[in-house]
Amino acid sequence: MQDKMIENLMRAERARQKNAINLIASENYVSDDVLAALGSEFTNKYAEGYPGKRYYGGNDVVDKLESLCQDRARKLFGLNESEWRVNVQPLSGSPANLAVYFALVPPEGKIMGMELSHGGHLTHGHKVSATGKLWKQVSYGVDKKTEQLDYDHLAKIAKKEKPNIIVAGFTAYPRTIDFEKFRKIADNARAYLMVDMSHIAGLVAGGVHPSPFSYADVVTTTTHKTLRGPRSAMVFIRKDKRSLDDLIDKAIFPGLQGGPHMNTIAAVAVALKEAKTMAFKKYARQTTANARVLAKELATYGWRIVSGGTDNHLLLVDVWQGGAGVGGAEASERLEKAGIIVNKNTIPFDTRSPADPSGIRLGTAAETTRGAKQKDMKHIARVIENTLRFKH
Ligand code: DSN
């Protein structure tokens, strides 16, 4: 590269990624092919519109690319084109979710989503997000005792509040989500059901988490977490007489976005093909097996694991009351010094502040990509124990 300053930063980041143990539950390491597609000439092309309906010339190649990406997305999750539209243009998860509400929820309407501090996402109606300013959030949380979803309680909230849309899917919920129960709750409240499967998309693709597609009206997902693609997002929309597919397509473009990032769409297409392989299925199985071992080992050392364990790729550790009296911020800093990257995280019913909560969130997707197995998780648990239990 001519630009030595950027080249040096690239080299430094490459080294940082290589030398640290990455337990950020929402990160992963993409393949060289995904990186090549991201760095391709597709970045030079303006392609406002959709395949066959563009506003600029010169789109014959990118039309093929976007259609191929859509086909691969549907194939990966076993969907028919006659039943599902997929939009691969959202620039990331937040704009994808915003577009769905923009299309389906009237001004001042209600979004029923998980509270942020219980594992929800800002874009599920939190007051600091546009989704909480433009619409009203009806929030739900986990049960205080089990720290898991209480579907009967959710049904009562939905019946009383009559939200326009119910969002299932979380950023820090370590348990399997029962999409069928969410569907019944949505039907009884006459609400749309949107599943945000950003965290678990790779697990759904790999067959280690139930699929939401039999139940949801709309499924949103980022592509860079367990799915192991570039930073981007997709929206899957069930086709029916309500024409939600047209409404959401229009909300994405021209409603909220301009030209799609075609280089990113190329990289998503590469990742979707990779995720269709047997090797990826094995990866998904190993990711969840690793999370279970990490949770079990830490529990054996005496750490309290929120909800008692994990069914997916992530776990929440209560380092404050359920550990050594270390706050989440200090725990994260101490682990970083020991070469382990995690994020501080609130736990349900947290008594501390979001800036220094009671928990840390650990995920196994990135390290499993690098080949980590159960024995490596035991080693990581030992380092966490040694780093956090005692003051050094
Ligand atoms: N920042 C993502 C996560 O870490 O879960 C969600 O947007």
UniProtKB/TrEMBL annotation:
Task performed by this protein: Catalyzes the reversible interconversion of serine and glycine with tetrahydrofolate (THF) serving as the one-carbon carrier. This reaction serves as the major source of one-carbon groups required for the biosynthesis of purines, thymidylate, methionine, and other important biomolecules. Also exhibits THF-independent aldolase activity toward beta-hydroxyamino acids, producing glycine and aldehydes, via a retro-aldol mechanism.
Catalyzed reaction equations: (6R)-5,10-methylene-5,6,7,8-tetrahydrofolate + glycine + H2O = (6S)-5,6,7,8-tetrahydrofolate + L-serine
HAMAP family recorded: SHMT (MF_00051)
Protein family membership: Belongs to the SHMT family.
The entry's keywords: Amino-acid biosynthesis, Cytoplasm, Methyltransferase, One-carbon metabolism, Pyridoxal phosphate, Transferase
EC code: 2.1.2.1
Domain called Serine hydroxymethyltransferase-like: residue spans: 2-384
Cofactor(s) the protein needs: pyridoxal 5'-phosphate
Residues under site feature: Plays an important role in substrate specificity: 224
Subunit structure: Homodimer.
SUPFAM superfamilies: PLP-dependent transferases
Name listed for the protein in its UniProt record: Serine hydroxymethyltransferase
Main location: cytoplasm
Gene3D superfamilies, per database record: Aspartate Aminotransferase, domain 1, Type I PLP-dependent aspartate aminotransferase-like (Major domain)
NCBIfam families (UniProt xref): PRK00011.1
GO biological process: glycine biosynthetic process from serine; methylation; tetrahydrofolate interconversion
GO molecular function, one term: methyltransferase activity
Keyword Metal-binding among record annotations: no
Residues at which (6S)-5,6,7,8-tetrahydrofolate binds: 116, 120-122
Gene Ontology CC terms, in alphabetical order: cytoplasm
Main enzyme class: transferase
Sites of N6-(pyridoxal phosphate)lysine modification: 225
Pathway field: One-carbon metabolism; tetrahydrofolate interconversion; Amino-acid biosynthesis; glycine biosynthesis; glycine from L-serine: step 1/1
Gene responsible for this protein: glyA
Domain of life the protein comes from: Bacteria
Subcellular location: Cytoplasm
